[in-house]
Fold this sequence. Notes:
GO biological process, one term: apoptotic process
Distance between the termini: 35 Å
Helix content: 55-70%
Structural class: alpha+beta
Order of helices and strands: HEEEEHHEHH
Transmembrane segments: 12-36, 77-100, 107-131, 151-172
Family: Belongs to the TMEM47 family.
Keywords: Apoptosis, Cell adhesion, Cell junction, Cell membrane, Cytoplasm, Membrane, Transmembrane, Transmembrane helix
Membrane topology: Multi-pass membrane protein
Number of helices: 5
Shape: elongated
Strand order of the largest sheet: 4-3-2-1-5
Amino acid sequence: MVKYGLDYTRCRWILPLLLGIGVIFGIIALAGRGWLESQTLPYVHRASLWESCSRSDQGEEWSCESLMGYAWGRAAAATYLVGFILLVICFALAIIAFAIDTLRFNFIRGIGGLLFVAAVFSIMGLVIYPVKFSTEIEMTGINMFSWAYGFGWTTAIMEICLGFFFCCLPNYEDQILGNVKPTYFYSSP
């Protein structure tokens, strides 16, 4: 990407595209019911960020309890949601930043900083949830944190990695804009 510059049409939109993928993963984590699931038969427990559902061994209907009744449930949901909202704001700012013909590199560095803040909020929610869930909610059998919880961690990791890219990109401003003379390693005799 640095070799061809950000004006190279296929490379210009890679970072906003990756942010868009992070937004999609965040939506999956927020809406998914697979934050915690029973691992072995009988499958008697499943939970999302918003509620915990259980049933007896005989396969009755699921009875669900909102996690918003717990202070830690509200804290986990709020911190993860704030991280997600900041990610969406970064996505919108990245679209604006890369759509302008003249790149504002300090603006791009600000997006990177905001991504780190989003990652901190997301990780706080992702740590509060399992620690308090496993101590406050009675679980039977073997349970595992499942696919939607994994999407949440993937979103947080993407926020950190993309934060580094957005913060380091202005360091290569001259190479990106083509202001550096090429150096040749051939010397004539």
